[in-house]
Each structure stands twice: as C-alpha cells, then as structure tokens.
Write a structure and sequence with these properties.
82% of the residues lie in helices and 0% in strands. With 71 residues, the chain is an all-alpha fold.
Length: 71
Amino acid sequence: MDIEAIGLPDSEEIHKLEEQHRHYSEQLEALLQKPYPSEQEQLEEVRLKKLKLYVKDQLVARRNGHQRAYA
C-alpha cells in the first residue's frame, strides 16, 4: 500500500522521516569511506547510527499504525 498515493494524514510525516533516514545514511556512508577517521568523526559515526535507528523505529511505528488503522 502506497501511503503517499492514498493521502493518509501522517504520510507527510512519514515522507519527512524517510528523507531524514536517507540523509543520515548518506552522511554515515561518507564517514565510513575515510580510512583513518578522527576521534570526532568516530563519535559522529556513532551519533549518526543512533539517529538512523531512532528514525527507523519512528518509521516502523508510523507505518504499523497506518496498516492497523486502514486495513
């Protein structure tokens, strides 16, 4: 089911969360390309991983809420 296509109330929020997740993934990928990251970069890597996981959890919760409400 394409949430965007049927225009559910939280579809915009889900779209924003997906964009955030993609943005964090891109930043993380750039850091992982560095052969010798600094301490600060290593901390940023951990921070980005946590943010990605948090956003992913939010996405799963929103999507599950839609499936229950509109199934």
